[in-house]
Amino acid sequence: MANYDLLLLPGDGIGPEVMAEVEGVAGWLNAQTQNSFNVDIDLVGGAAIDAQGVPVSDATIEKADKADATILGAVGGPKWDGVDFEVRPEAGLLRLRKDLELFANLRPAICFPALADASSLKREHVEGLDIMIVRELTGGTYFGEPKEITDLPDGQKRAVDTTLYTTSEIERIVRVACDLARKRGKKIHSADKHNVMKTGVLWHEVASRIFKDEYSDLECHHILADNCAMQLVRDPKQFDVLVTDNLFGDMLSDEAAMMTGSLGMLPSASLGAEMNGKRKALYEPVHGTAPDIAGKSLANPIATIASFAMALRYTFNMGEAADMVDQAIANVLDAGLRTGDIMQEGKRQVGTVEMGAAIRAEMDRLAA
Length: 368
Ligand code: IPM
Ligand code: MG
Fold this sequence. Notes:
Layout: E1 3-11, H1 15-32, E2 36-41, H2 46-52, H3 58-66, E3 69-74, H4 89-99, E4 104-110, H5 123-126, E5 130-136, E6 144-151, E7 157-162, H6 167-183, E8 187-192, H7 198-214, E9 219-224, H8 225-234, E10 241-244, H9 246-259, E11 267-275, E12 278-285, H10 302-314, H11 319-334, E13 337-338, E14 348-349, H12 352-367
Helix pairs in contact: 1-10, 1-12, 6-7, 8-9, 10-11, 11-12
C-alpha cells in the first residue's frame, strides 16, 4: 500500500475539462488498487494570472517540487494576448520546467491501429508507428541569455535569442535517450544543425562520443534537423528514438504527433535527473488549450489520460496499471468511439466526459 502526492494543474482552455477525466482515473485507481493518490489541484497559466497576478506562484512551484508527480493540462489563450511577455501564461510552464530542472522531455508518437486512417499520411506509413522523441527542455534557444528586444539609434528595434548548450547538458539528454533506446528498438537518431550552428557542432561531437564510448550496442545515427523534418513525413517508421535540442524538439514533436491522427492523442513526460532512485516529473499532453472548443465538452481527454499513464509507468512504477490504461484507450478506439478531432465516417462521436467514462468502464472490464 503506497501513498502518493499527485498535483494537478489544469490550466486554461480545455485544460480543466481534460483534467477532470484524469481525476476520474486517479479515483478509479484509489478504489480498485492498493495505491492511493492524494490529489491536490492548483492554478497555472492564465488562470493563475487572473487569480494571483502571476502565471505560476512560488507556492505552486514548491508544491510541484514536493509532489511525487505533477500533471499539467495546457496554458495560454487569446484572453491573455495583451499581458507582459515576462508574465504571459506560457511563462508559468517554462518556469516549472526550469525551476524543477526537468531537462528530459519524452514525447512518444504512437499510432493506434484504429486511427491509422485519421492520419494525414497514408496508412502504410503510420500503421504501427512508435517513435520516442526526446527533447532537451531546459536549455537552448528558449532559455539562453541574452534574450531581449532593444532600441537602435535609428529607431529600429533589435531582437536577440541566444542558443546555448554546455557539454554536460548535451551529455545528460543523450544518455536519457540512449537508455530508452536500449529498452526499445536499440536504434537512435540525434538531430542537430552542425552544418550551420556552433551549438550543433558541439551537440554532434558530444553525441558521437557518448554513442561510441557508452552505447556501442545501439545502432546510432546523426541526422540534420531539417532533413529529419523531411524524413519524418517521407518514412516515419525508420525512426525509433530521436534525440534533439529544445527548439528542434518543439517543432519535430508537433510534426510527429500529427502523424498519429491528432495532437489530441499524445502524452509527454518531462523528467529531471535521478536522485535517490527518484526523478522530479511533470506530465502533460502535447496539445494546447484549444480555446475555440473550450467549455463545450468537445475536447479529447486521451492525451492527458495517457500522460497520467506515463506518470504511472515512469514515476509510480505501476507498469501494469499503465498498461491497463493504455489498453483501455486502445479498446475504446477499436470499439468506434471518437471525439471530434479524430472523428471518422461510421464511428460514434462522443464528448470529453463520455470518452473519459468509456475508458474507465473499459478499465472495469479489463480488471474484472
Ligand atoms: C510545447 C509548447 C510549449 C513549448 C509552449 C506552450 C511554451 O509548445 O510544450 O511544445 O514551446 O515548449
Ligand atoms: Mg510545442
